[in-house]
Amino acid sequence: MAKKIRLGILGGGGDSLIGILHRVASQINDNYEIVGAVFNPKFEDNISFAEEIDIPTNRIYKDFDTLVEEEMKLPESERIQVCSVLTPNFLHFPMAKKLLENGFSVICEKPMTTTYEEAKILQATLEKAGTIFAVTHTYTGYPMVRQMREMVKQGALGKIQKVDVRYYQGWLNPVIHDKEKRSSTWRLDPEKAGISCCMGDIGVHAFNMIEYTTGMQVKSILADLNYLYDDNQMDIDGTVLVRFDGNAKGVLRSSQIATGEENGLAIAIYGDKGGLRWEQENPNYLYVMSDDKPLQVYKPGHAYNSKLSLDGTKLPPGHPEGIFDSMANIYLGVSKAIRGQEYNDGEFPTIMDGVRGLNFIESTVASHKNGNTWVVLD
Length: 378
Ligand SMILES: NC(=O)c1ccc[n+]([C@@H]2O[C@H](COP(=O)([O-])OP(=O)(O)OC[C@H]3O[C@@H](n4cnc5c(N)ncnc54)[C@H](O)[C@@H]3O)[C@@H](O)[C@H]2O)c1
What we know:
Layout: E1 5-11, H1 19-28, E2 32-38, H2 43-52, H3 64-73, E3 82-86, H4 92-101, E4 105-108, H5 116-129, E5 133-135, H6 143-153, E6 160-168, H7 173-176, H8 179-183, H9 190-193, H10 198-214, E7 220-226, E8 237-243, E9 249-255, E10 264-271, E11 275-279, E12 286-289, E13 296-298, H11 307-310, H12 323-338, H13 351-369, E14 375-376
Parallel strand pairs: 1-2, 1-3, 3-4, 4-5, 6-9
Antiparallel strand pairs: 6-10, 7-8, 7-14, 8-9, 10-11, 11-12, 12-13
Helix pairs in contact: 1-12, 4-5, 5-13, 10-13
The structure holds nicotinamide-adenine-dinucleotide.
Protein backbone atom coordinates (compact mmCIF):
# COMPACT_ATOMS: atom_id res chain seq x y z
CA MET A 1 0.00 0.00 0.00
CA ALA A 2 1.41 3.39 -1.03
CA LYS A 3 2.07 5.81 1.81
CA LYS A 4 -0.04 8.93 1.99
CA ILE A 5 1.34 12.03 0.26
CA ARG A 6 2.53 14.65 2.74
CA LEU A 7 0.48 17.80 2.10
CA GLY A 8 1.13 21.35 3.32
CA ILE A 9 -1.52 24.10 3.33
CA LEU A 10 -0.96 27.85 2.95
CA GLY A 11 -3.98 30.03 3.73
CA GLY A 12 -7.38 28.37 3.90
CA GLY A 13 -7.83 29.06 7.61
CA GLY A 14 -11.08 28.67 9.50
CA ASP A 15 -12.09 32.16 8.36
CA SER A 16 -11.66 31.36 4.66
CA LEU A 17 -14.06 30.34 1.95
CA ILE A 18 -11.98 27.77 0.11
CA GLY A 19 -9.96 26.07 2.87
CA ILE A 20 -12.58 23.47 3.76
CA LEU A 21 -13.03 22.45 0.12
CA HIS A 22 -9.32 21.64 -0.22
CA ARG A 23 -9.04 19.93 3.17
CA VAL A 24 -12.03 17.67 2.55
CA ALA A 25 -11.15 17.04 -1.13
CA SER A 26 -7.62 16.01 -0.18
CA GLN A 27 -9.05 13.32 2.12
CA ILE A 28 -11.75 11.89 -0.15
CA ASN A 29 -9.57 9.36 -1.94
CA ASP A 30 -7.41 8.51 1.11
CA ASN A 31 -4.31 9.83 -0.64
CA TYR A 32 -3.04 12.74 1.43
CA GLU A 33 -2.12 13.57 4.98
CA ILE A 34 -1.96 17.22 6.06
CA VAL A 35 1.38 17.45 7.89
CA GLY A 36 2.20 21.17 7.91
CA ALA A 37 0.53 24.52 7.41
CA VAL A 38 0.34 28.27 7.72
CA PHE A 39 -3.42 28.72 7.76
CA ASN A 40 -3.44 32.38 8.77
CA PRO A 41 -1.01 35.30 9.01
CA LYS A 42 -1.37 35.35 12.84
CA PHE A 43 0.46 32.51 14.61
CA GLU A 44 -2.10 32.22 17.45
CA ASP A 45 -4.89 31.79 14.88
CA ASN A 46 -2.82 29.18 13.09
CA ILE A 47 -2.27 27.11 16.17
CA SER A 48 -5.82 27.35 17.45
CA PHE A 49 -7.23 26.36 14.06
CA ALA A 50 -4.85 23.39 13.79
CA GLU A 51 -5.96 22.26 17.27
CA GLU A 52 -9.60 22.71 16.31
CA ILE A 53 -9.25 20.43 13.28
CA ASP A 54 -6.89 18.05 15.06
CA ILE A 55 -3.69 18.52 13.07
CA PRO A 56 -0.45 18.13 15.09
CA THR A 57 0.87 21.60 15.85
CA ASN A 58 4.61 20.78 15.68
CA ARG A 59 4.66 21.69 11.96
CA ILE A 60 2.29 24.65 12.10
CA TYR A 61 4.58 27.55 11.31
CA LYS A 62 4.50 31.27 12.06
CA ASP A 63 4.80 32.21 8.37
CA PHE A 64 5.51 30.86 4.90
CA ASP A 65 9.27 31.52 4.91
CA THR A 66 9.63 29.62 8.17
CA LEU A 67 7.65 26.71 6.73
CA VAL A 68 10.07 26.38 3.82
CA GLU A 69 13.15 26.84 6.03
CA GLU A 70 12.08 24.29 8.63
CA GLU A 71 10.75 21.72 6.15
CA MET A 72 14.03 21.83 4.22
CA LYS A 73 15.83 20.75 7.42
CA LEU A 74 13.75 17.56 7.56
CA PRO A 75 14.80 14.39 5.72
CA GLU A 76 13.10 14.15 2.33
CA SER A 77 11.11 11.13 3.53
CA GLU A 78 9.37 13.32 6.14
CA ARG A 79 9.22 16.65 4.31
CA ILE A 80 6.04 18.12 2.80
CA GLN A 81 5.81 16.87 -0.82
CA VAL A 82 3.12 19.18 -2.15
CA CYS A 83 1.76 22.48 -0.86
CA SER A 84 -1.68 23.91 -1.57
CA VAL A 85 -1.61 27.70 -1.97
CA LEU A 86 -5.02 29.03 -0.87
CA THR A 87 -4.20 32.61 0.11
CA PRO A 88 -5.49 35.82 -1.50
CA ASN A 89 -4.17 36.15 -5.07
CA PHE A 90 -1.11 38.39 -4.55
CA LEU A 91 0.61 35.71 -2.44
CA HIS A 92 0.25 32.90 -5.00
CA PHE A 93 3.28 33.93 -7.07
CA PRO A 94 5.90 34.48 -4.35
CA MET A 95 4.77 31.37 -2.48
CA ALA A 96 4.52 29.07 -5.51
CA LYS A 97 7.83 30.28 -6.92
CA LYS A 98 9.76 29.69 -3.71
CA LEU A 99 8.11 26.29 -3.25
CA LEU A 100 9.14 25.21 -6.75
CA GLU A 101 12.67 26.52 -6.27
CA ASN A 102 12.95 24.34 -3.20
CA GLY A 103 11.71 21.21 -4.95
CA PHE A 104 8.11 21.08 -3.68
CA SER A 105 5.12 20.30 -5.90
CA VAL A 106 2.31 22.87 -5.85
CA ILE A 107 -1.48 22.91 -6.01
CA CYS A 108 -2.31 26.56 -6.63
CA GLU A 109 -5.61 28.39 -6.46
CA LYS A 110 -6.66 30.56 -9.38
CA PRO A 111 -5.86 33.11 -10.67
CA MET A 112 -2.43 31.49 -10.62
CA THR A 113 -0.64 34.86 -10.26
CA THR A 114 -1.64 38.52 -10.45
CA THR A 115 0.17 39.27 -13.74
CA TYR A 116 0.85 37.47 -17.02
CA GLU A 117 4.56 38.22 -16.57
CA GLU A 118 4.60 36.40 -13.22
CA ALA A 119 2.71 33.48 -14.76
CA LYS A 120 5.41 33.05 -17.41
CA ILE A 121 8.16 33.29 -14.78
CA LEU A 122 6.40 30.58 -12.78
CA GLN A 123 6.20 28.40 -15.88
CA ALA A 124 9.97 28.75 -16.41
CA THR A 125 10.58 28.02 -12.72
CA LEU A 126 8.52 24.83 -12.97
CA GLU A 127 10.47 23.71 -16.03
CA LYS A 128 13.66 23.89 -13.97
CA ALA A 129 12.10 22.33 -10.88
CA GLY A 130 10.55 19.37 -12.69
CA THR A 131 7.97 18.90 -9.92
CA ILE A 132 4.16 18.72 -10.29
CA PHE A 133 2.00 21.85 -10.56
CA ALA A 134 -1.79 22.04 -10.69
CA VAL A 135 -4.15 25.03 -10.83
CA THR A 136 -7.48 24.39 -9.16
CA HIS A 137 -10.00 25.19 -11.85
CA THR A 138 -12.33 23.14 -9.69
CA TYR A 139 -15.13 22.63 -12.17
CA THR A 140 -12.91 20.59 -14.53
CA GLY A 141 -13.12 17.82 -11.92
CA TYR A 142 -16.84 17.15 -12.45
CA PRO A 143 -17.48 13.81 -14.24
CA MET A 144 -19.89 15.42 -16.72
CA VAL A 145 -17.47 18.24 -17.58
CA ARG A 146 -14.84 15.59 -18.24
CA GLN A 147 -17.39 13.76 -20.37
CA MET A 148 -17.98 16.94 -22.39
CA ARG A 149 -14.26 17.21 -23.09
CA GLU A 150 -14.06 13.60 -24.22
CA MET A 151 -17.19 13.79 -26.41
CA VAL A 152 -15.89 16.88 -28.17
CA LYS A 153 -12.50 15.19 -28.60
CA GLN A 154 -14.19 12.11 -30.10
CA GLY A 155 -15.99 14.34 -32.62
CA ALA A 156 -19.53 13.84 -31.24
CA LEU A 157 -20.38 17.48 -32.03
CA GLY A 158 -18.63 17.66 -35.38
CA LYS A 159 -16.98 20.99 -36.10
CA ILE A 160 -17.44 23.45 -33.23
CA GLN A 161 -19.15 26.65 -34.37
CA LYS A 162 -20.44 28.40 -31.22
CA VAL A 163 -19.59 28.43 -27.51
CA ASP A 164 -21.65 30.20 -24.86
CA VAL A 165 -20.37 30.31 -21.28
CA ARG A 166 -21.96 32.22 -18.44
CA TYR A 167 -20.71 32.65 -14.87
CA TYR A 168 -23.13 34.73 -12.82
CA GLN A 169 -22.89 35.44 -9.09
CA GLY A 170 -24.70 38.12 -7.07
CA TRP A 171 -22.62 38.31 -3.86
CA LEU A 172 -21.02 41.67 -4.68
CA ASN A 173 -24.35 43.46 -5.06
CA PRO A 174 -24.75 44.20 -1.34
CA VAL A 175 -21.06 45.16 -1.14
CA ILE A 176 -20.59 47.39 -4.16
CA HIS A 177 -23.23 49.99 -3.26
CA ASP A 178 -21.67 50.57 0.19
CA LYS A 179 -18.55 52.75 -0.06
CA GLU A 180 -17.02 51.38 3.13
CA LYS A 181 -17.65 47.75 2.25
CA ARG A 182 -16.34 48.11 -1.28
CA SER A 183 -13.09 49.61 -0.01
CA SER A 184 -12.49 46.81 2.51
CA THR A 185 -13.05 43.74 0.29
CA TRP A 186 -9.73 42.21 -0.87
CA ARG A 187 -11.17 41.06 -4.19
CA LEU A 188 -11.79 44.75 -5.03
CA ASP A 189 -8.25 45.81 -4.03
CA PRO A 190 -5.77 45.67 -6.95
CA GLU A 191 -2.88 45.25 -4.50
CA LYS A 192 -4.35 41.97 -3.28
CA ALA A 193 -6.38 40.66 -6.21
CA GLY A 194 -4.54 41.87 -9.32
CA ILE A 195 -5.99 44.07 -12.07
CA SER A 196 -9.42 42.45 -12.24
CA CYS A 197 -12.13 41.32 -9.87
CA CYS A 198 -14.86 39.66 -11.92
CA MET A 199 -12.74 38.41 -14.82
CA GLY A 200 -9.84 37.49 -12.53
CA ASP A 201 -12.01 35.68 -10.00
CA ILE A 202 -14.67 33.89 -12.02
CA GLY A 203 -14.32 34.95 -15.68
CA VAL A 204 -11.05 33.02 -15.63
CA HIS A 205 -12.92 29.83 -14.62
CA ALA A 206 -15.33 30.39 -17.52
CA PHE A 207 -12.42 30.95 -19.91
CA ASN A 208 -10.73 27.77 -18.68
CA MET A 209 -14.00 25.88 -19.08
CA ILE A 210 -14.13 26.88 -22.76
CA GLU A 211 -10.60 25.69 -23.49
CA TYR A 212 -10.90 22.57 -21.28
CA THR A 213 -14.11 21.29 -22.84
CA THR A 214 -13.53 22.25 -26.47
CA GLY A 215 -9.80 21.52 -26.57
CA MET A 216 -9.56 24.67 -28.71
CA GLN A 217 -7.57 27.79 -27.91
CA VAL A 218 -9.25 31.17 -27.88
CA LYS A 219 -7.36 33.33 -30.39
CA SER A 220 -8.76 36.80 -29.74
CA ILE A 221 -11.19 38.56 -27.44
CA LEU A 222 -13.17 41.82 -27.19
CA ALA A 223 -14.37 42.87 -23.75
CA ASP A 224 -16.90 45.30 -22.33
CA LEU A 225 -16.55 45.51 -18.54
CA ASN A 226 -18.55 47.27 -15.85
CA TYR A 227 -17.15 48.99 -12.75
CA LEU A 228 -20.39 50.74 -11.66
CA TYR A 229 -18.67 53.39 -9.46
CA ASP A 230 -15.84 55.82 -10.34
CA ASP A 231 -13.94 55.03 -7.13
CA ASN A 232 -14.05 51.28 -7.87
CA GLN A 233 -10.94 50.26 -9.80
CA MET A 234 -12.00 46.68 -10.45
CA ASP A 235 -14.45 45.20 -12.96
CA ILE A 236 -17.40 43.47 -11.34
CA ASP A 237 -19.23 42.39 -14.48
CA GLY A 238 -18.50 41.99 -18.15
CA THR A 239 -19.17 40.45 -21.52
CA VAL A 240 -16.37 39.07 -23.66
CA LEU A 241 -16.68 38.05 -27.30
CA VAL A 242 -14.29 35.24 -28.19
CA ARG A 243 -12.97 34.02 -31.53
CA PHE A 244 -11.21 30.80 -32.37
CA ASP A 245 -9.35 29.83 -35.55
CA GLY A 246 -11.68 29.53 -38.53
CA ASN A 247 -15.23 30.74 -38.11
CA ALA A 248 -15.94 29.45 -34.60
CA LYS A 249 -17.02 32.20 -32.22
CA GLY A 250 -18.43 32.52 -28.75
CA VAL A 251 -19.44 34.68 -25.84
CA LEU A 252 -18.32 34.69 -22.21
CA ARG A 253 -20.62 36.50 -19.78
CA SER A 254 -19.53 36.96 -16.20
CA SER A 255 -20.94 38.95 -13.32
CA GLN A 256 -20.72 39.33 -9.56
CA ILE A 257 -23.62 41.80 -9.49
CA ALA A 258 -26.18 39.47 -11.06
CA THR A 259 -28.46 40.03 -8.09
CA GLY A 260 -29.69 36.85 -6.47
CA GLU A 261 -27.53 34.52 -8.55
CA GLU A 262 -25.47 32.01 -6.55
CA ASN A 263 -22.81 30.11 -8.47
CA GLY A 264 -24.36 30.13 -11.93
CA LEU A 265 -21.66 28.71 -14.16
CA ALA A 266 -23.09 27.19 -17.34
CA ILE A 267 -21.63 26.24 -20.69
CA ALA A 268 -23.09 25.28 -24.04
CA ILE A 269 -21.04 24.09 -27.01
CA TYR A 270 -22.57 23.78 -30.46
CA GLY A 271 -21.04 21.93 -33.42
CA ASP A 272 -22.40 21.15 -36.86
CA LYS A 273 -23.48 17.68 -35.67
CA GLY A 274 -24.76 18.39 -32.18
CA GLY A 275 -24.70 20.42 -28.98
CA LEU A 276 -23.86 19.94 -25.29
CA ARG A 277 -25.17 21.91 -22.34
CA TRP A 278 -24.09 21.72 -18.66
CA GLU A 279 -24.80 23.77 -15.53
CA GLN A 280 -22.69 23.82 -12.37
CA GLU A 281 -25.70 24.08 -10.06
CA ASN A 282 -27.07 20.86 -11.58
CA PRO A 283 -23.77 19.11 -12.32
CA ASN A 284 -24.91 15.51 -12.72
CA TYR A 285 -26.86 16.19 -15.92
CA LEU A 286 -25.18 16.67 -19.28
CA TYR A 287 -27.64 17.55 -22.03
CA VAL A 288 -26.83 16.15 -25.46
CA MET A 289 -28.69 17.78 -28.35
CA SER A 290 -28.93 17.11 -32.07
CA ASP A 291 -31.01 18.12 -35.10
CA ASP A 292 -32.87 14.85 -35.47
CA LYS A 293 -32.97 12.99 -32.14
CA PRO A 294 -34.80 13.67 -28.88
CA LEU A 295 -32.79 15.40 -26.13
CA GLN A 296 -30.52 12.95 -24.27
CA VAL A 297 -29.33 13.29 -20.68
CA TYR A 298 -26.00 11.73 -19.71
CA LYS A 299 -25.31 11.06 -16.02
CA PRO A 300 -22.17 10.09 -14.06
CA GLY A 301 -21.03 6.52 -13.45
CA HIS A 302 -22.67 4.83 -16.45
CA ALA A 303 -20.53 2.66 -18.71
CA TYR A 304 -21.38 4.86 -21.70
CA ASN A 305 -19.16 7.60 -20.22
CA SER A 306 -15.48 8.01 -21.09
CA LYS A 307 -12.63 6.65 -18.97
CA LEU A 308 -11.72 10.19 -17.88
CA SER A 309 -15.27 10.73 -16.63
CA LEU A 310 -15.58 7.27 -15.03
CA ASP A 311 -12.25 7.64 -13.23
CA GLY A 312 -13.87 10.60 -11.45
CA THR A 313 -16.82 8.67 -10.02
CA LYS A 314 -16.56 6.57 -6.89
CA LEU A 315 -20.06 5.13 -6.46
CA PRO A 316 -22.61 3.54 -8.83
CA PRO A 317 -24.94 5.82 -10.85
CA GLY A 318 -27.56 7.70 -8.85
CA HIS A 319 -25.19 8.94 -6.14
CA PRO A 320 -24.77 12.63 -7.00
CA GLU A 321 -21.26 14.00 -7.48
CA GLY A 322 -20.74 17.49 -6.04
CA ILE A 323 -18.13 20.21 -5.69
CA PHE A 324 -16.14 18.30 -3.04
CA ASP A 325 -15.89 15.30 -5.41
CA SER A 326 -14.90 17.58 -8.24
CA MET A 327 -11.99 19.08 -6.29
CA ALA A 328 -11.13 15.58 -4.99
CA ASN A 329 -10.72 14.42 -8.58
CA ILE A 330 -8.11 17.13 -9.15
CA TYR A 331 -6.28 16.03 -5.98
CA LEU A 332 -6.51 12.43 -7.22
CA GLY A 333 -4.91 13.36 -10.54
CA VAL A 334 -2.11 15.22 -8.76
CA SER A 335 -1.50 12.23 -6.46
CA LYS A 336 -1.06 9.96 -9.49
CA ALA A 337 1.41 12.42 -11.03
CA ILE A 338 3.39 12.74 -7.79
CA ARG A 339 3.57 8.95 -7.45
CA GLY A 340 4.66 8.59 -11.08
CA GLN A 341 1.50 6.62 -11.92
CA GLU A 342 -0.26 6.81 -15.25
CA TYR A 343 -3.05 9.38 -15.46
CA ASN A 344 -5.42 10.69 -18.10
CA ASP A 345 -4.82 13.93 -19.94
CA GLY A 346 -7.22 16.42 -18.29
CA GLU A 347 -7.13 14.96 -14.76
CA PHE A 348 -5.88 18.28 -13.41
CA PRO A 349 -5.38 21.74 -14.90
CA THR A 350 -1.70 22.48 -15.44
CA ILE A 351 0.57 25.51 -15.33
CA MET A 352 -0.37 26.13 -18.97
CA ASP A 353 -4.00 26.67 -17.89
CA GLY A 354 -2.70 29.17 -15.34
CA VAL A 355 -0.63 31.01 -17.95
CA ARG A 356 -3.56 31.09 -20.40
CA GLY A 357 -5.77 32.41 -17.60
CA LEU A 358 -3.51 35.38 -16.92
CA ASN A 359 -3.16 36.06 -20.65
CA PHE A 360 -6.99 36.17 -20.76
CA ILE A 361 -7.39 38.42 -17.70
CA GLU A 362 -4.85 41.01 -18.86
CA SER A 363 -6.15 40.98 -22.45
CA THR A 364 -9.71 41.47 -21.23
CA VAL A 365 -8.84 44.53 -19.17
CA ALA A 366 -6.67 45.89 -22.02
CA SER A 367 -9.49 45.39 -24.53
CA HIS A 368 -11.95 47.28 -22.34
CA LYS A 369 -9.56 50.11 -21.50
CA ASN A 370 -8.56 50.55 -25.17
CA GLY A 371 -12.19 51.27 -26.03
CA ASN A 372 -13.47 47.71 -26.55
CA THR A 373 -10.97 46.63 -29.18
CA TRP A 374 -10.01 43.12 -30.31
CA VAL A 375 -6.92 41.76 -28.54
CA VAL A 376 -5.02 38.75 -29.83
CA LEU A 377 -4.02 36.20 -27.16
CA ASP A 378 -0.47 34.78 -27.32
N1 LIG B 1 -11.31 27.26 -7.22
C1 LIG B 1 -12.34 27.97 -6.83
O1 LIG B 1 -13.46 27.74 -7.29
C2 LIG B 1 -12.17 29.09 -5.85
C3 LIG B 1 -13.26 29.52 -5.05
C4 LIG B 1 -13.03 30.51 -4.10
C5 LIG B 1 -11.78 31.07 -3.95
N2 LIG B 1 -10.75 30.66 -4.77
C6 LIG B 1 -9.40 31.25 -4.66
O2 LIG B 1 -8.83 30.85 -3.41
C7 LIG B 1 -8.04 31.90 -2.88
C8 LIG B 1 -8.54 32.23 -1.49
O3 LIG B 1 -9.87 32.66 -1.60
P1 LIG B 1 -10.85 32.67 -0.33
O4 LIG B 1 -12.18 33.07 -0.82
O5 LIG B 1 -10.71 31.42 0.44
O6 LIG B 1 -10.21 33.88 0.49
P2 LIG B 1 -10.50 34.24 2.01
O7 LIG B 1 -10.21 35.69 2.15
O8 LIG B 1 -11.83 33.71 2.43
O9 LIG B 1 -9.38 33.40 2.80
C9 LIG B 1 -8.01 33.64 2.67
C10 LIG B 1 -7.25 32.86 3.73
O10 LIG B 1 -5.85 33.09 3.56
C11 LIG B 1 -5.29 33.42 4.84
N3 LIG B 1 -4.10 34.23 4.65
C12 LIG B 1 -4.01 35.54 4.28
N4 LIG B 1 -2.74 35.94 4.24
C13 LIG B 1 -1.98 34.86 4.60
C14 LIG B 1 -0.60 34.64 4.76
N5 LIG B 1 0.29 35.61 4.56
N6 LIG B 1 -0.19 33.41 5.14
C15 LIG B 1 -1.06 32.42 5.37
N7 LIG B 1 -2.40 32.58 5.25
C16 LIG B 1 -2.84 33.77 4.86
C17 LIG B 1 -6.43 34.15 5.55
O11 LIG B 1 -6.19 34.19 6.94
C18 LIG B 1 -7.60 33.28 5.16
O12 LIG B 1 -7.67 32.12 5.98
C19 LIG B 1 -8.15 33.07 -3.87
O13 LIG B 1 -7.03 33.08 -4.69
C20 LIG B 1 -9.40 32.77 -4.66
O14 LIG B 1 -9.36 33.26 -5.98
C21 LIG B 1 -10.94 29.69 -5.69
